[in-house]
Write a structure and sequence with these properties.
CATH class: Alpha Beta
Oligomer: single chain
Radius of gyration: 22 Å
CATH topology: Creatine Kinase, Chain A, domain 2
Structural class: alpha+beta
Largest sheet: 7 strands, antiparallel
Number of domains: 1
Shape: globular
Helix content: 40-55%
Distance between the termini: 51 Å
């Protein structure tokens, strides 16, 4: 704690006020009966390839909403809400599914894969998704979540780097500090699953024909009684092939080395699939990972990339710019899936991960992190649950309370010293967020996952599909009832049309045959304009 406080004191109010954040939020489009919409991405929303705020994730039916970068949680949520309002006005009676676990799904082969037009970059995005469907099945890819992007201002590293003992120039110190943050986040991210996990149940269609360890409900739904986030457990974003990677986050070099092998060495099971059969492409490559984004993790080091640039190359040349938190469920009780209190807690939590001692990870510790993630995802509300810590065990609630106590000076600094840049609100919003988290540790029935099961039983006959649809319709009505000025609607409509025009320009400018484009991209040889 002494070292944490020393490092905290090195951050000026300007540093704390200069923290930036952004949100990427995935949601399935559902029909009004709670089944997956099989319609194409609505043209009124623009081009999924080029629109800066509205795209698709794996499926053509899976919208991804992206905010810009904001200095306050409130501004970030305001933009996310505005984008939601525009989308709901342009999806022709469909709804955005409120839960992370999917709505009613058809047979696997009938789940539509995202389409991005005829350009090389658009075709590559579709082929990548085709590869995901061959490797993992389409159902797993329909799970949705919220990603939180977080960064400190560049000037913070001038003072923080030396205090934390990171050598080198400002860029090297910044990169090392973000990797230290990532290591601690992976150690403690189970706490986020407990506090914010909201996927303890799933529609039976998600697992139809597959073995699972869930318990049935009379409605055709499946659940685990103490689960917090099935999305983050063995049923979610998991891969036996990737589990063998044991990627180390001790440095950019160790991280890049681990992923580089997975991106270049052929993997027998994927070699058997092949890159293509005749003129039909099946995947981008036969390596364990087609591209960097295929590596599933609770958090990623990130750097803005240039057209045609591989993410690992961008990191190697320019260092880590921000981190992307990837373990948050959609909160089905909230119209846009997340609220300001959660964002403020995340800011405190991420600063704790940054400012605390962060020893190197080891293969044994990496395996323990994975076990803790699955324990909390499947049994997090179980009384007396113990987690792996060091060479022994620690009670979830006791460990959680310890982390919250260590976060208190950070919350106080954000409330008292960061001024308008860290939130601009009177009072103690960051300390309030810690108090709410403490209440959830004291009483598991207050957690979102417990509330989901309680609401399913009380009002929806234990049907996950009925519960999810009711929440989705309520959020749609709430967002449609909010003011949406004509000039805002016109601005969004103009952005949609501009994105369509941008896609056409990209398609018209292509000169490389797709196979050459694919080979050069996989080899990291593309430059802007290819």
């Amino acid at each position: 704690m002494n070292r944490l406080n020393e490092r905290l004191s090195a951050l000026t109010p300007r540093d704390l006020g200069g923290m930036m954040r952004g949100i990427e939020k995935e949601s399935l489009r559902s029909r009004p009966d709670g089944a997956l919409a099989d319609t194409p991405h609505p043209p009124a929303l623009g081009s999924a390839l080029t629109h800066p705020n509205i795209t698709t994730d794996f499926s053509e039916s899976q919208i991804e909403l992206i905010t810009g970068v904001h200095p306050t949680p409130g501004a970030c949520l305001a933009e996310l809400t505005e984008i939601h309002q525009f989308v709901h006005r342009n999806i022709d009676g469909e709804v955005l599914w409120a839960s992370s676990m999917p709505c009613g799904l058809p047979e696997d082969e009938r789940i539509p894969i995202g389409r991005y037009g005829s350009s090389n970059v658009g075709r590559a995005k579709t082929v990548y998704r085709q590869g995901l469907s061959w490797r993992y099945g389409r159902r797993m890819q329909t799970i949705s979540g919220i990603h939180y992007n977080f960064s400190l201002p560049p000037g913070a590293w001038e003072t923080l780097g030396p205090v934390c003992g990171f050598p080198g120039d400002a860029r090297a110190r910044q990169t090392d500090a973000y990797f230290a943050l990532i290591r601690n986040f992976r150690r403690h991210s189970w706490l986020l699953l407990y506090l914010f996990g909201a996927s303890p149940a799933v529609c039976g269609s998600f697992l139809e024909g597959h073995a699972h360890g869930l318990q049935p409900l009379d409605s055709g739904s499946l659940y685990l009684p103490h689960a917090t986030s099935l999305r983050m457990g063995p049923l979610g974003y998991q891969s036996d092939a990737q589990a063998a990677l044991a990627v180390s986050f001790n440095s950019l070099e160790s991280y890049s080395s681990s992923l580089s092998r997975a991106l270049t060495e052929p993997y027998p099971a994927y070699e058997a699939i092949g890159v293509r059969e005749g003129d039909e492409y099946r995947q981008l490559a036969t390596s364990l990972l087609q591209i960097e984004n295929e590596f599933y993790g609770t958090i990623r080091p990130k750097r803005s990339i240039r057209p045609g640039e591989r993410p690992l190359r961008a990191l190697a040349e320019r260092g880590v710019e921000y981190v992307e938190v990837r373990c948050l469920d959609l909160d089905p009780f909230l119209a846009v899936g997340i609220d300001e209190g959660t964002l403020r807690f995340l800011d405190v939590f991420l600063l704790h991960c940054l400012l605390s001692d962060s020893p190197p990870d080891t293969p044994d510790e990496i395996a323990g992190m994975s076990r803790n993630q699955h324990l909390v995802a499947q049994r997090g509300r179980e009384p007396g649950l113990a987690l792996h810590r060091g060479g022994g065990q620690a009670g979830l609630r006791e460990w959680g309370r310890e982390l919250l106590r260590e976060c208190e000076p950070i919350a106080e600094a954000l409330d008292a010293g960061a001024g308008a840049g860290a939130g601009g609100d009177a009072g103690s919003p960051h300390r309030d967020a810690l108090e709410r988290a403490a209440a959830l540790l004291d009483d598991a029935s207050l957690t979102p996952s417990a509330r989901v099961l309680r609401e399913m039983a009380a009002a929806h006959g234990n049907s996950f599909r009925a519960f999810g649809l009711a929440c989705s319709l309520q959020h749609r009505d709430q967002l449609l009832a909010m003011p949406f000025p004509e000039e805002v609607a016109a601005r969004h409509a103009r952005m949609a049309q501009e994105s369509i025009a941008a896609q056409r320009r990209i398609e018209a400018a292509d000169v490389l045959p797709f196979e050459e484009y694919r080979r050069r991209y996989i080899a990291g040889e593309l430059v802007a304009g290819d």
